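#structure-requests
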Amino acid sequence: MRIAAPAPAPGGTRSTVERDGPTRRPRFRVDDLRLALDRGELMLAYQPFVDAATGAVTGFEALLRWHHAALGPVSPADFVPVAERHGLIGAMGTWVLDTACRQAATWRGDCRVSVNVSPVQLRQPGLFDRVASALEASGLPPHRLELELTESVMVSDVAAAINCIRRIRALGVNVALDDFGTGYSSLGYLQRFVFDRLKIDRSFIQGIDESQANWVLVRAMHDIARGLGMAVTAEGVETEAAVALLRGIGCDELQGFLFSRPVDAAAVRRLLADPTWDRGSARAATACGPVTAPVEREARAGRACLALGGQG
């Protein structure tokens, strides 16, 4: 699959060398990213969601990775903004959606796959059709697909976002509000949109065993979500103390490096053969071929590249 090259900007070329990004990686050309799909340089990694009560794997979040033939791994924090600026995120996002659905359809059990939606993609036409097409082509039951939206996704055109989410949920696909608590009007979104799941941002989860403020806020967000009929997932869980606290308030799911870093598709199938995680030995994160994981700053930037839809 080739990403169509948009017309060059006045005074520029399509083979612009991008400046070093926030991770100070070596420079790459836009054409390198455009051809990444053809060259087989893109892949999906998966980070699990774990049932807080039982430790069983309930699903995986798909994370896009780029391994440049010459430069090696390129951070999502570097290539995602480039893809958005140069009109490549649509075709790239379609590949992510199709690939995630196809791979998830081969998993044993009823685990879901969660794919992120970027602001760029929600604004473009065709998102609903691409979701429906990916489900039909892969045979993945709609309830096993979840789309994650951050609060920033819905800022520009609230009415259009509400309509798009409504149609997607009508397919049977679940929709989650990701990174909850980081936007300027978090509670306002809960008034206007209908979500199936709320993911509490890692900035609140980390340190809840030491910060009274974090703990009070997490409990409040959890109670609000449950009161509105949403399931709750806690992101960025890294300590046993956090697990105990979150389990104590009835949090549904946990996600974080305590359980596993992102792993490749082959490792997912092996993990699902024995879906109870051994946190003490970190067996899941080490014995099953983990993908080189980003730092926390990089991980959040990478979510934008899991956009759905296309060029319209």
